[in-house]
Amino acid sequence: MIQSRTHNCGQLRISEAGEKVTLVGFYDNMRKVSRNLGFLILRDFYGVTQIVIETEEMMAKLNGVNNESTLSITGIVRERSSKNASLPTGEIEVVPEEIKVLGKCIYNELPFEINRSKEADEATRLKYRYLDLRNPEVKSRIVLRSKIVSELRSRMTEHDFLEITTPILTCSSPEGARDYLVPSRNHPGKFYALPQAPQQFKQLLMTSGFDRYFQIAPCFRDEDARADRSPGEFYQLDMEMAFATQEDVFSVIEDVLPPVFAKYGTYKTASKAPFKRISYKDAMERYGSDKPDLRIDLELQDVTDVMADCGFGPFEGQKIKAIVVDDFTATRKVIDKICADVEVQSGNKAYWFKVDESGELAGGIAKFLQDRKEKVMEALSLKPGDFVGLTAGKLLDAQKTAGVLRKFLGIASEKHRKTDCYEFCWIVDFPMYEIGEESGELEFCHNPFSMPQGGMEALMTKDPLDIYAYQYDLVCNGVELSSGAVRNHDPEIMVKAFQIVGLDEEHVKAKFPAMYNAFCYGAPPHAGIAPGVDRMVMLIAGEESIREIIPFPMNKTAQDVMMGAPSEVDEKQLRDVHIKIDIPEKEV
């Protein structure tokens, strides 16, 4: 052992009894029995060791020393008379001959008890993240992250991928979120942008003749936080393959990821190749989501023909989706809570009824269905004890609301949800184009660099809304880990694809000059994907919040409360980059 110690605090065993050792670490706590007897716990990165203070001299060295100070302790290892089987070092203790204070904690009170830091409010934890990370439970998530990233690197290298880093300062590029802009000192009025993804660079590498590329890539997007999304900065296992098809990408991912999930995961089983493949259209129709949790075996059914004219106002003229849960014994209170949660998450209401023990329709909207009971029972194959959840609206609204309802019903019904595995699937055949919800105009559905299925012929002859793209999403346990695609490497097809959404060739050349020009020199077909590292680690660790697996996360409003970022800068710094601040005053 190095670093001014002979052993770490998780290393000593009974075999070292009688040896003289030096340990260093944090003063975790001490149980003081008398003025010349105390039991001090020394903690470092590796574990804890009990130090027995048996003299007034040694006790005096700790007078005025607060918890979390750093100490160096030299002493003799001996067998403990009262062993602690729950600790790796529980058979021994160290009797000190010398105690040195290496770094003094000047505060008598800490913001929180280190070993219970996860019980503190999030703002306090983030402000004192360096103390939060001293908690072995919190630290273990960062250690796990390191091991997973190392394993991913190793497995990608075994598949002959080269790790190549791409630029951080680049040009602004539309990736679907706001850019972080960096003003240029040498070029007044111009800006760099932090990359939302290495998308263009990795495609240019394929055009440059590299065959297989990957990196653990930092990405920057100015977007709001969610439980599974960190604002500002995140990391991807970014990869691209030349002369590759969709199947080539699937083959690599299906070989790389499951063993990592099974090795390090909370659950020890993960889907084996090939993963289930579901078209986007089928995913929405069967699961109400393009990121379905396949651990839940419930599926949506369409009951529009049976119920649309039943006299219940919200169903009139709408698409109606149903989810049947057999032997559902939830109380009315639980059902009402599920419906309320669905409305909060989807913005739309959920409805229900059930089949009682006598075979009658009861509860919820049952009174509107009595005149068509037999048709309803037959359409849904109902039997006594069945519960039926319902949603209504325009097709996509009805599907999405039903998808949320399906999730909550699956959670409430243990019979229909597995909880001890990682279920992967591919969502494929995404539409190339869609009508934008905000603009009401034709837009790219996913990545504008994707190859349309059918190539130029499809773009020339089909209704844009009927064109599918070689785009795919990787989903695990209801979490979207990544989007990927076979890339559009043909400049003529690329120009035509953009023309369909109203952007001409000059726009393509102006926004993507390097990629467009490179493709004009003969580009290989290529495809790739970029699973999110943060989301993968979150799933593997079994955490609900992505902030638990990031060493120094921002809060929900994209602030680093520990470092005080974002922060103001002085006038000279602004002048250097030719920027003047003009913030409108708030009205009182």
From TrEMBL:
Parts forming coiled coils: none
Entry-linked InterPro entries: Aa-tRNA-synt_II (IPR004364), aa-tRNA-synth_II (IPR006195), aa-tRNA-synth_II/BPL/LPL (IPR045864), Asp-tRNA-ligase_1 (IPR004524), Asp-tRNA-ligase_1_N (IPR047089), Asp/Asn-tRNA-synth_IIb (IPR002312), AspRS_core (IPR047090), GAD-like_sf (IPR004115)
Keywords for the protein's UniProt record, in alphabetical order: Aminoacyl-tRNA synthetase, ATP-binding, Cytoplasm, Ligase, Nucleotide-binding, Protein biosynthesis
KW RNA-binding (keyword) present: no
Compartments where found: Cytoplasm
Residues where L-aspartate binds: 175, 221, 446, 487
Main location: cytoplasm
Region: Aspartate, residue numbers: 199-202
Similarity field: Belongs to the class-II aminoacyl-tRNA synthetase family. Type 1 subfamily.
Name of this chain's protein: Aspartate--tRNA ligase
Organism expressing this protein natively: Suilimivivens aceti
Gene coding for it: aspS
